[in-house]
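Demo today. Your pick:
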Amino acid sequence: MLIFGNLAFGVTDTSEDYKDTYEQTLNEYLKYDEFNSHLESNKKAALEMIRNITERRLADSNSAQLRGGTMTEAYDFDVQLSIQADTYTCGYATILQTMYGLEKEHLIQGSTDEQKQRTIETDIGHYGTSVIVWEVVAYLNGYLSSDDYAYYLGSSSAMSEDDFADKVALSLMMERPVLLHAITEDLSYYNGTSQNHYLSIYYINQNTDKVKIADCNYDSQFGGYHYADLSEAYATIHDHYNRYLISY
């Protein structure tokens, strides 16, 4: 297992099941430009995420049994809407929405949402440019001691609509608001308008296949709280190249 040997930083479980799942997960993620950028920037954090995903894949609670009725059908988690301060700041605004949900917004410097978004931008090290997916995950995980966030490629063969619903439900159950690295044209309330955009999901009902979205868009015809079909939310990352679900 050459890959396992070279990139197994911090792995303590040496069972064959774990090794096989870890190597399969790592090989999958090594195909993603996002992960390779993450690995190059912070190898320790990138491989820690692989370990977390490996453990979740091995856990029965992260299986398709969720939609089979073995868990509560609806999850609702408070997220405070934060309208983006500029055209490129949807990622920072959605991070702030997530921090509100985690009840950690008070740890970000600033007395207004705009000031807090600017602080997040500065902390991440960007000035006038958008944030990328692994940086969102790294920033949020910097405030967590457990149950860290990870990112999952929407167009992956491992991401069916049921898998998507399971991950959203499990994340909300774990009190981790969900983020979508989305293309908006699939959402009915965008009326076909296509934007590269970050969104929050803070509710899912697995009986009705509905989600609630907190959309930070500065355009009032799109920004705000919205109900959406689960299939539409899924399509925003599944039907497009290199888009991600960010969740537990």
The first helix runs from residue 2 to 6. The CA atoms of residues 157 and 189 lie 27 Å apart. The two ends are 28 Å apart (CA to CA).
